[in-house]
Design a protein that fits this description.
Blueprint (H helix, E strand, L loop, with lengths): L3 H19 L7 H13 L2 H12 L14 E5 L3 E2 L9 E2 L1 H16 L5 E4 L5 H14 L7 E4 L5 H14 L4 E7 L3 H10 L3 E7 L15 H22 L4
Parallel strand pairs: 1-4, 1-6, 4-5, 6-7
Antiparallel strand pairs: 2-3
Helix pairs in contact: 1-2, 3-8, 6-7
């Protein structure tokens, strides 16, 4: 679908141009114009980059955290349950990528306990998947902690801090996508923890011609940013941050 999107938008813009030429005063295709320009905007990489700036600009893109921490906490995300034709649970793409980054920190920054938060209704499957991924990467079993009950960032922090405090830990390095870090960091701070942000997956531009071509990735990025901004409003409304 990558080449289809800009071609379809180009056809839509050409058709809109013809509609304007044939329309009369009082019958201008304003709604169609707004719709097509809106599609161009949400699929533009520069717009996605600008839209994400308020969430990401406050964080250093150096992958090594700037402070010290006694444990690494990763917001793991979704796990697909076992299916008849796939009789084993499987980590979602975001879950796998975040765990890989946490493992990289464990190896490059210093060995310390890793707490994976997430799972929700698939808590048993999540525990199995998280532990398996860590063990495959060589993390010792006694340094793997799992919080499988949470279904949101708020619950990540709420249930995660219980495990951390049981081990006497109040200072953590927090791993999640850069766009999600503002809400995640505030949620864990609300629980009385000292947070050293360890964000990754920043949305960056290469400042090349290809950045001007509409893309599905930009639409997805804009959707993620909108989700985070609405989430921040919702969390403040409920005093979770």
């Amino acid at each position: 679908m990558e080449p289809a999107l800009p071609l379809l938008l180009l056809l839509a813009i050409f058709s809109l141009f013809r509609m304007w030429r044939r329309s009369r005063s009082g019958e201008r295709p304003w709604l169609m114009t707004i719709a097509i320009l809106g599609l161009v905007l949400v699929s533009a990489k520069p717009a996605a980059w600008l839209f994400s700036r308020p969430l990401e600009i406050g964080y250093d893109q150096n992958p090594i955290p700037s402070g010290k921490a006694d444990a690494i906490v990763v917001l793991a995300g979704a796990v697909s349950p076992a299916l008849p034709n796939r009789p084993y649970p499987l980590a979602g793409s975001d879950t796998y990528i975040r765990i890989q980054h946490a493992v990289w920190l464990f190896k490059q920054w210093g060995a310390r306990p890793i707490l994976a938060c997430g799972g929700g209704i698939e808590s048993e499957a999540s525990s199995q998947v998280f532990r398996r991924l860590f063990e495959i990467e060589g993390v010792p079993p006694d340094l793997i902690w799992i919080e499988p009950r949470s279904r949101s960032t708020h619950e990540n922090a709420l249930y995660g801090q219980e495990i951390l405090r049981q081990h006497g830990i109040s200072r953590i390095a927090l791993v999640t996508d850069a766009r999600s870090m503002v809400r995640a960091e505030a949620s864990f701070r609300k629980q009385g923890l000292t947070v050293v942000p360890a964000p990754f997956r920043f949305y960056n531009l290469d400042f090349e011609f290809g950045d001007l071509i509409p893309s599905p990735q930009a639409i997805e990025a804009n959707g993620d940013t909108a989700h985070e901004l609405v989430g921040l409003f919702w969390y403040r409304l409920h005093r979770w941050i």
